[in-house]
Amino acid sequence: MRALLTALGLAASIALISSANAQTVTKSHGQTLFGTLKYPPDFAHFDYVRPDAPKGGQLVLSATGTFDSFNQFIVKGTPAAGVGFLFESLMTGSLDEADTSGQYGLIAESVEVPDDFSWVIYNLRHEARWHDGKPLTADDVIFSFEALTTKGHPFFRAYYQNVIDVEKLGPHRVRFSFNTKNNRELPHIMGQLTILPKHFYDNVNFEESSLVPPVGSGPYRVKGFEAGRSINYERVDDYWGAQLPVNVGHYNFDEIRYDYYRDTTVALEAFKGHEYDYRAENTAKNWATGYNVPALDQGLFLKEEWPDRSSHGMQGFIFNIRKPIFNDVNVREAISLAFDFEWANKTLFYGQYTRTTSYFESTGLEAEGLPTGLEREILEPHRAALPPRLFTEAYNVPTTDGSGTNRRNMRKAASLLREAGWQIVDGVLSNEKSGKPLEFEVLLIQPEFERIVLPFARNLKKLGIEVRVRPVDTSQYINRRRSFDFDMIVDSFGQSFSPGNEQRDFWGSDRADTPGSRNLIGVKDPVIDALIDRIIEAPDREHLAAATRALDRVLLWNHFVIPQWHVGIHRIAYWNKFGQPETRPKFGIGIMSWWIDPEKLARLDTRKKESR
Description:
- By secondary structure, the protein is an alpha+beta fold.
- The chain is 26% helix and 23% strand.
- It is built from 18 helices and 29 strands.
- The chain has a six-stranded antiparallel β-sheet with strand order 1-2-8-9-11-10, covered by helices on one side.
- A hairpin with a 2-residue loop joins strand 20 and strand 21.
- Helix 8 runs antiparallel to helix 12 and helix 16 runs antiparallel to helix 17.
- The protein is globular.
């Protein structure tokens, strides 16, 4: 989930004056970060859809691992792929505005916000219905908020912690009040609230994972499933929101099915045999060599690269600093120096990747050079608690010549380890005081990552560090990750173009010991807590940017992760049966605006028979 800052779009809004407290209240069909919304109140549909797209056919997708639950909102269980199709939020965004910009009414018809952002009111659509025909009301909104923040995943408690009251103002009108003023983000993140059916959970324990399909209000319902193997969703014929401007041209498939595979290697082979229709590829080797089969040459399936203009955040090898061996920043930096990205990119990735250098990669909020101006003002009061180099050196990720020798970095790593109190004894790096060896385990969910980790482990072996690489199945990985039962994992921290409340779940001290939180590193740092507050309370874009760069700089200099890589394209492959709108979305693929083209489907079937 991403936190999105907001200010109301003034050009498409109505200003109201509240006599009770002389506040100016803006009522609008949507909300945006800066300026005006792209789409006015009377817009008919988003630009990147075909409004009269034909309905019908089946979209088959893949998932890996297993599932044992339809409840994606709690810590327990592994939720089924696609379960999000069942539910809707108060508002929704467009794919041709940055993820901090347009947010338009979905369940909510309009939104009201005062000029000090101390509360927000949502006016619900009277026509909103659950799949069983019952009306969706303010009672469902209140139930959803209370269930998520008291019984749901720990993320929700952190994300919505500034909400002090939720009040029913009428059957279709609800107000959220905040414990702070001038936080422009809060109305927007409330718009992201997923609404759940109160009457369904009156008879079902929300806190337990369950394979009882819940009642939804969204465009699809569960048609059938085989636990851990496949799940089928069917389009709701009388879906109440089908003609809403935010939905027109979307959800064109009569059915969407997810088939589960043991791992991504098996899934790739299944795609080439047309066991499913669409695949987003995230492995460079597969993209370079894995699709070279006759079906591609014959045009039966297509392999395309679309520009990726989204933010990339941080993917990396993540240290669990709850483990004593990773308490020392010098040890973490030394281990980082042993990772040779340039060699890996040339040898393993076919040169497809760019090294990530920021926790806020591709957002325009990256820390660069030395801290200056407002960013330095923010950091100065914390100087005594920060690494001295932060003020005198620009942070740079280690680089090599790509030859695979990496001698310069390895020498520096050895020096840092000696400084931290480690020495080589009989070829093993041991602590001078305790005599214990420096050894750790890299926990993996993707076996394909072994070819990346093993060369890294060989470099660490030269320093006397013993590394064990352990791939595990999906369920075991999820459970160990939730309980922070790992030394090092590969993970990522997705970011929006305007960071906010989600930073608490990533790095907040109060999240470090909360199972299931995104504070995987185990960060407990008062300085970082203070910088998070500066981001959340930023009065304008200038202060937000400065506070975010300050946080980025502090995170980088603490060497909490070993930055990995990103790619500026979407790598997609799909069987040639789809129609697509003439205009592509600026951000993302927008596959829910595709449709089955009958002529392409017939041609594909014919050519497949001829090939056989």
